[in-house]
Amino acid sequence: LIFIYYISGSSGHKLNHKKNVVLPLSTQIKKKQQEVVGFLEANKIDFQQMDIAGDEDNRKWMRENVPGEKKPQNGIPLPPQIFNEERYCGDFESFFSAKEENIIYSFLGLAPPPGTKVCTSVLPWGSFI
Description:
Elements: E1 3-7, H1 25-42, E2 47-51, H2 56-65, E3 81-84, E4 87-91, H3 92-100, H4 104-108
Parallel strand pairs: 1-2
Antiparallel strand pairs: 1-3, 3-4
């Protein structure tokens, strides 16, 4: 099962940040993306990064496949957006909540690894894990 994670590959610049300094949006996005990628790598979950900055087809697909109720008021969802194949899982905030609640494998639509203690949860598309 290939896990697809949408990422903006737009280049940004590194800044020295002091406490209580608002980060540029691109920096905030990159930090969120790094957290998702780091989690997937640490847990040996197969995934593929799809660059929406350099590929119009990827950008269009992501925008069309994020459910309407999950899109911001302007209608344009920001990365990272997380999909299991073509099934929408959620955005970073949903990912973070699922991780905190120990339901991350349910969120991702994956069976937990053997020996993993997990909570039973209803998947976003209505089935149980």
